[in-house]
Design brief:
Layout: E1 46-52, H1 56-66, E2 76-79, E3 95-96, H2 105-125, E4 134-142, H3 145-161, H4 163-166, E5 169-173, H5 177-182, E6 191-200, H6 203-216, E7 221-223, E8 230-233, E9 245-249, E10 252-261, H7 267-270, E11 278-288, E12 300-304, E13 315-319, E14 322-326, E15 332-334, E16 337-340, H8 361-374, E17 389-400, E18 406-411, E19 419-427, H9 437-452, H10 458-467, H11 479-486, H12 491-497, E20 499-500, E21 510-511
């Protein structure tokens, strides 16, 4: 397996998204309206707000912009290097699961609200069947006694400070074999945690619905297959009302009053000075055919440290619904086991890699064979050594150096002032974007509109968001956080030795139990 040098990738910026990406199962039913979509034949010369990226972050930004009366008169442009939702969101595990005992209570509560926001939008627009939304319990199995004990300590600590959140989590000891089997987990684990309030979905269909709706309502100009090669400050007078940034593409340049980067793992391609703060990470997913005669699993799953894997490299699993029409072999349609992870068994480097065109053979083999030993799948498994894959593919996560998303104004690139005028960032989810990006997107929209319409300064905007519990303090981009993050171990070092949470190295601790999923 690959063993990265801890300092190997610290100064390696991301590439542009590659043109020959591996084939994700989630893209097997593409949205015909959005394929190669360009709302206008040519790029506009100017826009009020440009959103770069079209995953769940970019779609959420578009959703909240186009539904906010303060933005009614604004021209909003979305630029995407490939097709809509062709990056991490269109390649992830389909989880929308809040982490509760792995986070501080304010962050955990924020993630719960994110899941509620996703579910609420799906219910409001009646797209639950189309995007295969399912409310589930998150079942995490621990295969290392020490990590399981650390998780139990974290749950006890959460109960002391936020009993309401703690009541959402239940512990099952590995010695209770009957109870473990009831949750379809194989014997041999140290134990399980069961977390209420999770969801699973077809992420591409969810995002493409949002984007198509914004376009059809005439509120969003989408330009696919339009890579952004640079974002630069507009020189000269920057008084109110003037364009502050110019976005460069092979099809021409566009000036904007505000640019919002929803580029996650690809951020450092445009912001080289953030190369060591948001690091690309190539990770692997699979869509596996279930055993003939099996039934749908009851939960979504995370697996920590199975077969001696690094506990920092969790595996993650959901199962799609079955459909009535049978296949030729007597099995039912659907029911794919959407299984990701296996990074401890990778043959190629993962940290710092930003091309999703390859499938790692070590991870791929691990994913095909592991569920037959870690789970009780049911059905006809006799003699099976591995499951057959419908698709196996890779995607690029954006790993944050302090394990928290970055939301707010972009730090200055030229040292003139603390921040760039008109340039905003929302990303760096460390593989945990689905239960974060929706309300992070809303927060950055509020930032832009509060500055533009309410004439608030950045510090006041940040204070208001935190006071109203619209964003955790630790997510904000501030000079203090930047300074603290630069003192932390690199992403590559933490990937080997453990995540350090938060922006203050003196107050944070290595995270001993977590479930990070794409």
């Amino acid at each position: 397996m690959a063993t990265p040098s801890p300092t190997q990738f610290q100064n390696k910026p991301a590439s542009l998204p590659c043109s020959n990406s591996s084939a994700s199962f989630w893209h097997s039913e593409p949205n015909p309206f959005l394929l190669n979509h360009r709302t206008t034949p040519d790029l506009p010369a100017h826009a009020d707000i440009i959103v770069i990226g079209s995953g769940i972050t970019g779609a959420s930004i578009a959703r909240y912009l186009t539904s906010d009366a303060r933005a009614d008169s604004l021209d909003i442009l979305m630029l995407e290097a490939r097709e809509i939702c062709w990056g991490a969101t269109g390649r992830n595990g389909g989880h929308c699961q809040p982490l509760l005992f792995d986070r501080s209570p304010d962050v955990a509560a924020f993630e719960v609200r994110n899941v509620d926001a996703v579910r609420g939008y799906i219910e409001e627009h009646g797209i639950g069947v189309a995007c295969e939304w399912r409310a589930v319990t998150g079942c995490r199995s621990f295969w290392d006694e020490g990590v399981f004990e650390a998780a139990k300590r974290d749950i006890r600590a959460l109960a002391e400070v936020d009993p309401g959140l703690a009541r959402r989590v239940r512990i099952v000891d590995g010695g209770d074999e009957e109870e473990v089997r009831r949750h379809c987990v194989a014997g041999g684990s140290a134990g399980l945690t069961l977390t209420e309030g999770a969801g699973q979905l077809w992420p591409y269909k969810y995002v493409s619905f949002i984007v198509e709706k914004c376009v059809r309502e005439g509120r969003l100009n989408v330009q696919t297959n339009t890579a952004v090669t640079g974002v630069e400050a507009v020189g000269g007078d920057a008084e109110e009302g003037r364009y502050k940034q110019v976005v460069r593409t092979p099809r021409g340049n566009v000036k904007a009053r505000h640019v919002i980067l929803a580029t996650n793992g690809y951020t450092s391609h445009l912001l080289r000075h953030l190369t060591d703060l948001i690091v690309p990470m190539r990770c692997e997913m699979s869509a596996l055919h279930p055993p003939v005669g099996s039934e749908r699993l009851p939960h979504s799953y995370g697996m920590v440290g199975f077969e001696g894997g690094n506990p920092e490299h969790d595996d993650y699993l959901i199962q799609r619904p079955f459909y009535d029409e049978p296949n030729g072999d007597g099995s039912r349609r659907g029911g794919h086991l959407m299984f990701g992870g296996g990074r401890s068994f990778a043959m190629y480097d993962c940290v710092g890699e930003s091309e999703d065109d390859i499938v790692d053979p070590g991870e791929a083999e691990y994913l095909r064979r592991t569920l037959l030993r870690s789970m009780m799948l049911g059905g006809e498994t006799g003699g099976l050594k591995e499951l057959k894959a419908s698709h196996q593919w890779t995607g690029i996560k954006g790993y944050s150096r302090d394990n928290m998303p970055w939301v707010g104004k972009v730090p200055s690139r030229d040292g003139k002032g603390a921040f760039e005028e008109g340039l905003w960032l929302c990303g760096g989810y460390t593989g945990h974007g689905m239960p974060n990006a929706t309300l992070c997107g809303k927060a950055v929209v509020d930032m832009v509109l509060d500055e533009r319409k309410e004439k608030l300064g950045y510090e006041k905007i940040c204070e208001k968001l935190v006071k109203d519990k619209d964003l955790p303090q630790i997510y904000l981009i501030t000079p203090q956080r930047l300074e603290a993050a630069h003192r932390l171990p690199s992403v590559a070092e933490q990937d080997v030795g453990g995540i350090t949470q938060g922006g203050n190295p003196q107050e944070s601790k290595p995270q001993e139990s977590k479930c990070i999923v794409i």
